[in-house]
Amino acid sequence: MSVDEFAPVATQPQRGAVRSRIVEVAAEMLRESGAAALTTRRVADAAGVQAPTIYRLFGDKDGLVDAVAEHVLGEFVARKTALPAGTDPVEALRDGWRQQLDYALTNPELHRLLGEAGRSRRSPALDAGLAVLRSRIHGLAAAGLLRVDEQRALGIIRAAATGTVQQLLDSPPADRDPGLAEAMLEAVLGRILVPGFDSAAEAPGPALDGPRSAAIALAAQLDAFPAFSAAERRLLAEWLSRAVEDQDATGH
């Protein structure tokens, strides 16, 4: 009896086990043979189920691909999140950059699939990964190391990482510049960090880059002031944001 013959009366654990096996088989197939090989028939055969089982569990091929993406990305995000307490915020960002590029180059087919229109916007795992990046940027801001606001830093990092990954994936492996990723990382850090500091350990205080970095650092730590009401914190956050924008506009 095949697995899907008992599907109408399968228990939730049984259905979960079947679903997990299909996702793992599909993920391996995607890594080894590429997206073109990821057909419902081939996945069903490799997983030892009938094709209708995939439609019952995932809806269609897109649903299966989404599940594979969540599986692989979920494992990656879990590893990315695990950093020792007290890790230097600059080193945490460096670590995240390197992990992200390693993930994309190790899973090029999945990376390309996630780049398809609309798919990335419905990925909880991608949202979780973005939350990790935001938290690391917030750590830089709280340490007084950011020379741009947190949202700008996020945009710069994501744009640079996307472009770097695309350049490397578009190049044959033998032609890839092995130093490109690190060079881009240093360029990003040079743009978002206050001048002259590569780690929080070197930072003597929050006013490293004058009023701009002081305002960014204070904005990142407003929750540490319980004497302010929520409305007061929002107002102060708005004032600080305007102060940073004014510094950017005047070049001071």
UniProtKB/TrEMBL annotation:
Pfam families, A to Z = TetR_N (PF00440)
Q: Which UniProt keywords apply?
A: DNA-binding
Domain of life where this protein originates: Bacteria
| PROSITE patterns the UniProt entry points to | HTH_TETR_2
- The HTH tetR-type domain covers 16-76
Organism the protein comes from: Herbiconiux flava
Q: What is the lineage of its organism?
A: Bacteria, Bacillati, Actinomycetota, Actinomycetes, Micrococcales
Q: Which InterPro entries match?
A: Homeodomain-like_sf, HTH-type_TetR-like_transc_reg, HTH_TetR
Q: What is this protein called?
A: AcrR family transcriptional regulator
Q: What Gene Ontology terms describe what this protein does at the molecular function level?
A: DNA-binding transcription factor activity; transcription cis-regulatory region binding
List the stretches of this chain annotated as a DNA-binding region.
Answer: 39-58
